[in-house]
Amino acid sequence: MAAPFARPCGFPDTVVLVSFYNTQAPGLRLLQALLERAGYQVSLFFYENKGFHPPSAWELQTLTDRIQRAYPIMVVVCLETQVGFSAAQLLFQGLKPYGLPVVCGGAYATVYPMACLSAGAHYVLQGNDARALVFLADALTGRGEDPARIPGLSYRDGAVFVLKEAVFSRGLEHLPPPCLQSSCVYRIQSDTIKQEDPERSARSYTVFLSRDCPYQCAGCAQPMLRQMAQGKSPVLHFRSVQSVLWELNQAKKFRPYLCQVQFIAPCFPEVTGWLEEFLQEYPQTVGLPFWLHTYPKNCDTDLLRRLRKAGLRGVHFCLGSGSLPIRRQILYRYETNRELLRTACNAWESGVDAIAYTFFQIPDQPVSALKETFSLLQTFPGRYSVSWKQFVPALGYSPPPVPDCRVPHPVSSSPPPQDVPSDPVRQAWQDLIALWQVPLLRPVCHWAAENPTAHGLFLHRLWRLTSVALKFRDQWCHIRLLLRRFFSLR
Ligand code: SF4
Predict the structure, then answer these.
(1) What's this model's pTM, rounded to 2 decimal places?
(2) Does residue 297 contact residue 324 with C-beta atoms inside 8 Å?
């Protein structure tokens, strides 16, 4: 446990919240709302770096100086990924001389509490019951009970680590919506610090409609957390329509450039009356165009058509890989190619865009799997987009061997630099997959697919040019959405 920290008189009870690489950070903003509701002042620090580089010496020094000058009762670092943890370790070292109580929370901290305590954290909040943080703030200001008695709070007592069971709260409605307005927000980026919320100029806002989901995807921390929570079965909770609409209206109020909404809903709420209430109220009270991120099996035409009337523009779903064994045995996604095609057809028939994302750097993915992805995409009807993401295995994930599709040479665990493809054949197929989404270029793709290796450089350059054009197209779409919001144009 942290030794009592001497704070000068007259300083307000401030809690510092720090996020690395994630500026939207809904969990952190929810903690802010809870702490402010309990009477604490909150300062937020967002460290941004698009390449996921650790903070520079100047950035680290500035961050620790600013934190120390606030004389906070505790510093809370939200950890969701390994890369965030690596950056946080530098902060822990920087804060050590000041003796400030340091707390870790988030998915990474829940799964690896020992690593956090060994790295210098005094407390680890395990699970998702954010109220434990308020209990800890009360304890540290002498208003609450001993931190050792707070459920779900592991701690370090000298050389002894006391680990507790993670606590998961089931419901959602007792939680306040994330706080979207604060005067004490700092953005650290490229050796500068500014007092501004990085999300204030955001054009898109992401909302989660549920907690937990019934799926097991390999690139997600959710299945691991579910196992820790209580057992094997998912405990789905959906947010009420009113709480979602309230949050979105707050976002509209505090984000002046907001012009679109992204709903994260692995399952669309199957609560009686939810959809009807949403369809009736969303267009009237929010009225922004929205995109749905969901599981491919949940995109039936009837749902998409109804949502389109309320403003749905597109549906994002994971295609993963065109190879069934890779999808099943490495990505833990069990839909068939026929079901993926059905999803794309349903989107097309409903008049909304299909946006399929696929992964590069999947361990053990042979070139033949990329060919299968290309073949699958060739069957997709109408307009659709493809986006590439790096496959990042979830916390605690160890890929099983896939004997029937193992490649003869090992695949590097780090992504290849974008400009210098490490494997020309693989890169040529990735470029073909990306280019196929542009109908105008499909004859060229047909021709190049005969022998992609021979046309690798041409395909790569063509894709680089095309991706610039697609970025301009996206910018133009954003401008149109902004104009639509402010001048009611179509
Ligand atoms: S559907 Fe989404 S939330 Fe559920 S396990 Fe897969 S990636 Fe995670």
Answers:
(1) 0.84
(2) no
